[in-house]
Structure formats: C-alpha cells, structure tokens
Amino acid sequence: MYQPITRLFSKQTLSMKHSFIREILKMTKGVAGMISFAGGLPSPDSFPKKQLARLFSEVVMEDGEDVLQYGASEGDKALKQAILKIETISALDEEQILITVGSTNGIYFFTRCFIDPGDIVISEAPGFPGSLAAMEACGARFVGVEMDEYGMLPERLKQTLKALFDKKQRVKFIYVIPEFQNPSGKTMNLKRRREIIEIAQQYDVPILEDQPYRELRYDGEKIPTLWELARTELKDPGRVTICKSFSKILGPGLRLGYTMGPPEVIMPMVMWAQKITVSPDCATQRVAARFIDRGYFAEQISTIINLYRPRRDAMIEALKANMPAGITWTMPEGGMFIWVTMDDKINTDRLLERAIESKVAFIPGSKFYSEGVSKRNELRLNFSYCDVDSIHEGIRRLAQLI
Amino acid sequence: MYQPITRLFSKQTLSMKHSFIREILKMTKGVAGMISFAGGLPSPDSFPKKQLARLFSEVVMEDGEDVLQYGASEGDKALKQAILKIETISALDEEQILITVGSTNGIYFFTRCFIDPGDIVISEAPGFPGSLAAMEACGARFVGVEMDEYGMLPERLKQTLKALFDKKQRVKFIYVIPEFQNPSGKTMNLKRRREIIEIAQQYDVPILEDQPYRELRYDGEKIPTLWELARTELKDPGRVTICKSFSKILGPGLRLGYTMGPPEVIMPMVMWAQKITVSPDCATQRVAARFIDRGYFAEQISTIINLYRPRRDAMIEALKANMPAGITWTMPEGGMFIWVTMDDKINTDRLLERAIESKVAFIPGSKFYSEGVSKRNELRLNFSYCDVDSIHEGIRRLAQLI
Q1: Alpha carbons A163 and A141: distance in angstroms, whole number
Q2: Cβ distance A335 to A216 under 8 Å?
Q3: Facing residue for B283 by CB, picked from A66, A133, A254
Q4: Which among A56, A79, A111, A132 is the top mutation candidate for probing chain B, defined by the most B β-carbons within 10 Å of its own β-carbon?
Q5: Could you identify which of A77, A100, A133, B34 might form a hypothetical disulfide with A106, taking C-beta atoms 3.0 to 4.6 angstroms apart as the criterion?
Q6: B-chain residues within 8 Å CB-CB of A134?
Q7: Phi, psi dihedrals of residue A123, rounded to the nearest 5°
C-alpha cells in the first residue's frame, strides 16, 4: 500500500538536476595539495572581519529591539538609504530597491514574476549556471546567444528574437552579465550595451542585468550599466532591472544582495519575498548599512582590488609562460574568471579527470552551455581564491597535461 | 507599441493577493496611543541582545574565514550539531535537518517539492495565513478541516480525504500547527495526534507539522510532536516533516528556522534552497549554534515564558472582567494567541473599524479562513507584544464596543 513519496513530488522537483559544478567542488574540496581554480569563491583574505565583528556587536546592542524583530520584506530602510549613497544615479528612490538574500535570490524572485513553465529566457552562451538553475527551477527554457569579445552578438540576438516571435514563443526577458562575465570574463563595451537595449526596446522585452562583480575592476574605465543607460540616455527607465551583491565585497556567507528596477517589477518581487523568505537577516542588513555609512565601502573595494589584480596578472603570466601555442584566453578587466579556449581536439571534460589526478581543478566549458551544445574545448579558471604561488604552480600542472 | 510589463507576468504573480493582515498592521503601526493585539510579534523585551552581540563579534572574529564564505545549502554543520543537542530523539542525524531562512522558508521549500498548481493541501480551518500564502504562491488549493478544542476533527478529516480521493483530486499533504495554533491557540492532545497520523497513513499522505511556538509552553505537560510519534510509537519515520523556528526564541529578524524530516524529503528541499537562497546567513547560523552550545538556550526559554505567561494571564483576566456574557475564548497553554468567539450577530470585520477608532486593534477571524467561508463572529488577539497594563486597557476598550 505505501508507495515512495516521490510519486507526490511536483513536476519541477522531479525534473531538477544535480549540479555538476557542485560535484566537482565536493570532489576537490579538502584534498591535500589540490590547487582549485574551479570554485567561484572570494578569497577569505578579503573579508573585513574586524569591521564586521565590531559592527555586528554594535548593531545588536544599539538597535537590537529593531533588527531582531520582523523587518520589512522590501528590506531595511537604513540599508536602502546607504545604497542610495553608493548608487549615485538621479531619480533613484527606495521604491526601486529590494534587498535580497544574496543576488541569486533576487534573480529567482525576478524570474518567478515573469516565468510560467515553458517560457523563454534569452541568455549569453556560455552563461552562469547558478542563475540559469534558479531560472530553470521556475520552468524557464533557455535560448543562448553567441558572444564575441564584447558579449552577446547584436545580430544574433535580433535573429533569435525574430525567430522566436515569429513562432509566437513567449519570450519573457533577456539575461546578461555585462561586466567580467561569469564564465567568460568578458565585458560589454558601451556601444554593445546600447545596441542590446535598443533591440530589447524594439521587441519590447525587459532585460535582467546581473552585476555581481562590477566594483572589482582592475583596469580600464568604468562603463555605465545597462540599467543606467536605459534610465538616462535612452529614457526608458522601466527596461532594465539590475541585481547586485555584497558577496564579493563583504563576504558571501552574509547572503546579502539587492535588486534595483522599476516599481512595477520591484513590487511583485516584494510579494514573492514576503512568501518565501519574509525578509533578509535584519541584523546583517543594518551592519551593511553602517559599513557604508562609516565610509568603509570604498576602502574595502580598493583592498580587494589590490588583492585580486596581482592574482589575475599572475594567472595571465603563467598561462603565457606555460601554455602551448594555439591555446587562447580572455583578458578580464575585473571579476574572478578567465576563459580558456583550447585546440578543437581537446575535450576539457576528459582533461578534468587527468587534472584532478595531477591535483589541479577547473570547470569544463561544457557546463556553461545548455544541453545539446557540443563545445568541448573550453574551460573556466578562477583567479580570486588561490594565492600567486599556487596560481603559478597550478597553471604549470595544467599545461603539462596538454 | 510599448505595453505595460504586467502582460509578461507569470500566472502565479498575477493571481497573488495583497495581505489584508499586512494592511491592518500598516494602518495601526505608529499611531499614537494605539494598543495593537493584531500582529504576531514577539516582545522586544525577550531578545537576548547582550549574548547575541557578544557571540556575533566572537563568531566573525574567530570563524570569519568560514562563516563569511559561501556555506552549505543544507545549513551550517555546527548549527546542525547544536540542534542535535536540543532535539533529543533517537536516530536523528544531520541528513534529516535543513536550516532555513526562517520557518516560512522551510514551509515554502516543502510545498515547492510537492505542489503543482491546482494540487490540494489539507489544513486546519481557521489556519495561519502566512503559511497558506507561501503554499498558495506554489499554486496550492486549500481544503480546510473544522476543529474542536483539540484541533482538526478526525472524522471530518477522514470524510474530506475520502471525498477528495473519490474524485481523484491530487491531495499532496496535511498541514497542521498542533501546539498553541495560530490563530486559535488550541493544542492537539496526544490521542488526537495519533488519530491524525493514522488517518494520514491510511490514505498514505504526508504531514507537514509546523511548530514555531513549541518551546513557549506556560502550563500543562509537553506532548510528543506528530513527528516524534510517527518516528517512534507508530514506526513510520517518513510520514511527518516538522518545521521549527528560532524567531520566537532569538528574534525573528535573524531569519532562522529548521526543518526535520526524512532524507528523501530534505534532499529535494536542499536543491530548492540551492536555487532560491543558496543558504541562510552563515554568521547568524554559527551564532545560534554557539548560543545553544553555551547553554543559553534553556535559560532564554524560561526568560520568555516568565515574560509571556503573565501577559496571557492578564488577557484572560481582562476578558473575564470586561466581556459581556455569550462571548467565549480559548485558554492557550502557550504560544502568542487567544481566539475569541462572539455572538453570531457580531461581524468582527466591521467591529475592527470601530476598534481602530478607539485605538485598539485585532485581526478579524474571517482572515483565517479560505475564501467563501462566511464565519464573521471570531477574532484573534495577540498577547506577547503588549505589556500587562496595555493588555488590560486594550481589552477594556474592545469590550466597550460590543
């Protein structure tokens, strides 16, 4: 009479896949001597422990009655006010901001607002599996658009949208990581940003801009976000919603991010937050607010940049010194990742097995494409987590396998 | 050409309703002289500020490299180990525990595992709208089962299940708050708990047991949870999943709860957590772990009991002293709520308007029933938030309106 409980599971639950990236991370974690470029982890050396410890104690003692009580689902007012100090664009107000349990949480709420099972999200190919998994959980189907060095190709995006609209497919939004993209490390230039927005306008499709690494720029000039461009130059303030994160600045364990967008999108996202998380941790929100108010934010960002820039440089240097001819890589101006393209004959899924034996790890490129894509000669390297010496040694080990 | 963005919203988003309870809370918040029995808030006097402030500072300084980094989606190992100290049932292990962003978050993940839009959840009537809203967001439909003083009526539950199964409706689970129920304050006795589990076994339907107030018992003997009964006496360890909360003990602003259930349910819940929150706040989790490890937990619970018991007593006393004959109320052995039943002729939705004018607030009973239920003569009173004097004064004001 008793049957396994899985018979009662929802369709989305039954169709959920295990994350291959998580498997790799588990496989390589704690292995003695392993040099892992696989994760997307900030360096623990970057965490502002002393300041946070002091602020937590201060906030709980001084504002305990408030921050230990239920808080607003849209986020702590003090943190929103602090965000308005670092996001210095005109006409931004609290109603356009939602604080989230990390930026993935914002991506989930945004997707939940738009996606019915089977609806389409257009994304970069390769794209970031963490976000795509959150969207897939809502039943989204992905159509990837190929990239050149400046991101999504406008002509391809246009063709893709036209084909989907001709077939009356329900395209719900375009998802992009325009800066130091995960996994490719590529950055959209200004011209490309304008083009992407204009195409979205033409088809009247919203854009979700994911900007977890924006503050981590090691060289080159800051470029306005698509969100900023749409609001200012293109006079289309409802077009773009942007997700940002404190994970790479304060530490991902605090699970704190924020989404900024038009009130007509933020409002239903708040309703989802009410039902799913009630609110982010209120003590942590107030700590982040004070961290900004005290002026620690800019200082912390420059500390991180000074930590990661030499690591990126070391990895580029090591790749140049060790990799055989025919292998190419991106030169990210910021963020945490380098994308390596090998000879067509090299299958990086298979290379990973040998790499792990040699105690070096990466994520094979195939994990960043939707199913059915046959690209097998790429891989992603993270440079934020390991120190400079390990980076040199790890790349040397990897090069020896090729 | 440009159309409102709502045309792209998902069906669930378009069908989401505004919370009437939130409206009442907004309407009464910050009004000078208002005595509100409407919210479900713990008293700020109950928050262990000093201990938490010290532990936050300690945890971030000592374990910062760990707790500021990405953490496991299933929850912090240290907190799970601490929970195993307070949940002293045999054969419980880490794989049966998921730490969540408050217990509502656990209820959402559980529901997401089971519910496809249109599927049925059986719940107590009246029931807790916060949980029901989380379930409704997944597309659940509710079938309420009437209660007597010991909770859901077994005969009614049987009839309901039979009728639904006969019609081949997809019943996914039974949701109960067996202790100091929100909103009624009622507690299921041991016999009733056994009967409910046995009926669930007969129809092979899982039970979701919500236990946010369990530790707040002011008199009477502790009764085993349904989860404990199913695991031990009834030898059916997969039947019940239980959600618990630190909100009423440490403070709801910390957004920390946990779900315990069979690994076959906890595992897919973890997969939902990966996609929606990644993990709860890791610093806060470690703080809760140390709070337990240091032995503060039992002490904190007795502090809260000593704070709330006199408030409950004061409210009962005030009701006795002020309410006209024919009005009855529940005598909760714990928790935060008293349920008042008025004369059939009194409509508590209309009474609320006059009450707010007299600066006293409550939640009308109709808000705790599914749509279409016509009961209008009940109301919920919270006794944890106001002090004893305000309780006496508030009940006096309310009684004068009847």
Answers
A1: 15
A2: yes
A3: A254
A4: A56
A5: A100
A6: 275-276
A7: -135, 165
Q: Convert the pLDDT of each residue in B170-217 to its tens digit.
A: 999 999 999 999 999 999 999 999 999 999 999 999 999 999 999 999
The alpha carbon of residue A333 is apart from the nearest alpha carbon of chain B, in Å, by: 24
Chain CA centroid to CA B337, Å: 11
Q: Is A277's CB within 8 Å of B102's CB?
A: yes
**CATH class label, B5-48+298-400:** alpha beta
Nearest to A108 by CA among A14, A210, A205: A210
Q: What is the pLDDT of residues A169-224, one digit of tens each?
A: 999 999 999 999 999 999 999 999 999 999 999 999 999 999 999 999 999 999 99
At A2, the pLDDT band (50, 70, 90 cuts) reads low
> Could B277 and A101 be called an inter-chain contact, meaning their C-beta atoms sit closer than 8 Å?
yes
Rounded distance between C-alpha atoms, residue B277 and residue A84, angstroms: 24
**Tokens linked to B175:** 């949701």
Outline where A248-380 has alpha helix (H): 263-276, 282-293, 296-322, 348-357
Closest CA to B100 of B53, B134, B66: B134
In this structure, the number of other CB atoms found within 10 A of the CB of residue A138 comes to 24
**Domain B65-295 class, CATH top level:** alpha beta
A65 in reach of chain B (CB within 8 A): yes
Asked if A56 reaches chain B (Cβ–Cβ under 8 Å), the answer is: yes
Q: What residues in B contact A71, CB-CB < 8 Å? A: 253
Can you name the residues that pair with A99 across neighbouring β-strands?
A: A258
Among the partner residues A60, A115, A276, nearest to B49 by beta-carbon distance: A60
DSSP structural state of residue B94: G
B165 touching chain A per CB within 8 A: no
Give domain A71-295's CATH architecture.
3-Layer(aba) Sandwich (3.40)
**Cα separation, A69 vs A184, whole angstroms:** 42
Cβ pair A186, A147 in contact under 8 A: yes
Q: What is the average pLDDT value for chain B, to the nearest integer?
A: 95
Task: Name the token pair of A106.
Answer: 């914002």
Residue pair B194/B234 in contact (Cβ under 8 Å)? The answer is yes
Mutate which: A70, A128, A208, vs B, most B CBs within 10 A = A70
Separation CA A88–CA A81 (nearest Å): 11
Query: What is the domain partition of chain B in residue ranges?
Result: 5-48+298-400, 65-295
Determine how many CB atoms are found less than 10 A away from the CB of residue B265: 26
What DSSP designation does B335 have?
Answer: S
Which residues have C-beta within 8 Å of that of residue B346, sequence separation ≥ 6? Answer: B376, B377, B402
In sequence order, the 6+-apart residues with CB closer than 8 A to the CB of A39 are A25, A382, A385
**Residue linked to tokens 């190929």:** A146
Q: Return the DSSP state at B115.
A: P
Q: Does B347 touch chain A (CB under 8 A)?
A: no
Nearest-angstrom CA–CA distance, B58 and B156: 53
pLDDT of A70-128, one tens digit each?
A: 999 999 999 999 999 999 898 999 999 999 999 999 999 999 999 999 999 999 999 99
What is the CA angle A203-A204-A209, rounded to 5? Answer: 105
The Cβ of residue A126 has, within 10 Å, a number of other Cβ atoms equal to 25
CA Rg, chain A, in Å? Answer: 21
